[in-house]
Amino acid sequence: MATDTTASDLRAQSEPDTAPPDAARPGDEISLLDLLIVLAERKRLIFWVTAGFTVVAVIVSLLLPKRYTATVTLLPPQQNSSLSSQLAAQLGNLGGIVQMAGGSSGLLKNPNDMYVAMLKSRTVEDAMVNHFGLMQEYRKKYLSDARKAFEDHANVDGSGKDGLIHISVEDRDPKHAADLANGYVDQFRELSKSLALTEAQQRRLFFEDQLKQANQNLGDAEQALKETEQKTGLIQLDSQARALIESAAALRAQIAAKEVQIQGMQTYAAGENAQLIEAEQELAGLRAQLAKLGGTGDNPDSIIVPKGQMTTAGLEYVRRLRDVKYYEAIFDILARQFELAKLDEAKEGAIIQVVDPAVPLDKKSSPKRALIILCGAVSGFFVGTLIAFACAAVQRMRKDSRTSEKLDLLLGSIAGKR
Known about the structure:
Layout (H helix, E strand, L loop, with lengths): L1 H13 L17 H10 L1 H21 L4 E8 L5 H10 L3 H8 L9 H9 L2 H11 L1 H4 L5 H11 E4 L7 E7 L2 H19 L6 H34 L6 H27 L8 H19 L19 H37 L4 E4 L12 H30 L2 H15 L3
Antiparallel strand pairs: 1-3, 1-4, 2-3
Helix pairs in contact: 3-15, 4-5, 7-9, 7-10, 11-12, 11-14, 12-13, 12-14
């Protein structure tokens, strides 16, 4: 046994080591020098792959159509500092907490967010699609699809540090892009006409509605007076009765107008507001003056109490005349309030102001050909490097018989061969 063992050991020592140098050596590590050698040996492959990707990127950049971006810059209404202080005052003891939390400037939200949301609203976008015929331009069958396509070409941004709103619209025609951007502002202004966004606008809309109702009531009262004159034949009263009627009607009109004013103030002011309290005190004083004339708001027929007997026809005429004078007075008061609200609204200026209107650009915004070519070259170099490493790895595995058999088996399975 000892002799056999010695002989086998001698044969093992005398036989040359025929195993390939790249045989399976689990402890081998790939160094940076090995990677550089692989890249150097296959530099032609990397070059041609990079060149191919670059050529494709050049062709794609030339085939892409030119697009132009028009931008309009808007200045939204600025927050009123007095409004913030009034709100803080109405909070009472909580006003100090608000001041500690960041002052009055942090009490109200950024108005840009609201205006950006309104610009992106469905109403404005649908108006843009219908006004410019974007369904035909974008070749969309449904309005919702055309609206989404328009959103892909338009961008509204109000998050900049400059506090302005920027509207950008992209199109193949520079003039059409500018028209779309400026039309965006026009459609928003059409929408804002029907909305009360500020205090003055709220008062203007409120008094406008009340004025329409008062005009209708005045017309009805005048028609009723005319019919009474034709039926009774009375066309004039004595000066004392007319003076009492006009005085009482004026007081009733002032009371009604003051009630309307208080109702409008309650939409934006709290109960502790100084102006609201003053208006309520004035209303109480007017009611006291009306009571001295013998009338109340609940029973207007008791305003004029004739000292003698009055015929039924005369009493009916008095009532009709009183209604006409009343509605004339209230119409006059509401008309003045409406004009004042319109002046206040005009003082506030436009809801949004155009800082820079959109103009047709002489320089395209896309495609950025240099960037596309650079990305293509970098991608080609990256893909070429991966292919070079893959080829080196396959060549390394081919040197080992066992790994080579497994590789052939894998390729055969992928090709569908057993």
